[in-house]
Q: What sequence folds into this?
């Protein structure tokens, strides 16, 4: 309380929040302890954001990439099979923004919307929140990848292949195109 200049009430609330996020545990006569990292709830937006700021950057980028490689190709296939007019229009708008991007910032915003729109278009309400979960960390990864490329929009052709396969309702092609796009991303992370 002295270190941060806060009241006992603020301290209790902070400890309650950290407990609910799985970071600490508090027991009578034992005290408050930090839980081991494997017990943390990394599927909490705040915890994931905090962790991404202190984790070794390359290791974290590869872990996020592994998760994307497991989920996004399948989500693209689902999007191809089940997108609605509204969800496809959102994807088309994101793709158009990517095509029209004039700088890294515009590209990254459009790229992020593109990937979030793919998750929304898959019409699986359990996958859609993953976009919200990883949005901040994904944005940072997309920005880094755009800066590592020769030109910020170097992966436009790969995104267009995903977009066209979803538009054409070709689920196998959408899965393959997304896997190819993520392969390019992995190459930039590792390169």
A:
């Amino acid at each position: 309380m002295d270190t941060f200049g806060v009241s006992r009430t603020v301290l209790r609330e902070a400890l309650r929040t950290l407990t609910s996020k799985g970071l600490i545990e508090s027991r009578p006569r034992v005290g408050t302890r930090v839980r081991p990292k494997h017990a943390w709830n990394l599927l909490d937006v705040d915890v994931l954001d905090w962790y991404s700021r202190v984790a070794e950057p390359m290791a974290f980028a590869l872990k996020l990439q592994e998760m994307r490689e497991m989920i996004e190709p399948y989500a693209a296939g689902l999007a191809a099979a089940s997108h609605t007019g509204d969800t496809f229009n959102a994807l088309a708008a994101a793709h158009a923004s990517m095509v029209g991007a004039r700088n890294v910032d515009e590209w990254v915003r459009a790229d992020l919307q593109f990937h979030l729109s793919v998750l929304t278009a898959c019409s699986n309400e359990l996958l859609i929140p993953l976009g919200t979960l990883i949005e901040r960390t994904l944005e940072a990864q997309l920005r880094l990848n755009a800066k590592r490329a020769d030109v910020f929009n170097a992966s436009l052709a790969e995104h267009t292949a995903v977009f066209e396969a979803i538009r054409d309702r070709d689920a196998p092609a959408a899965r393959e195109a997304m896997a190819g796009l993520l392969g390019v991303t992995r190459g930039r992370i590792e390169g």
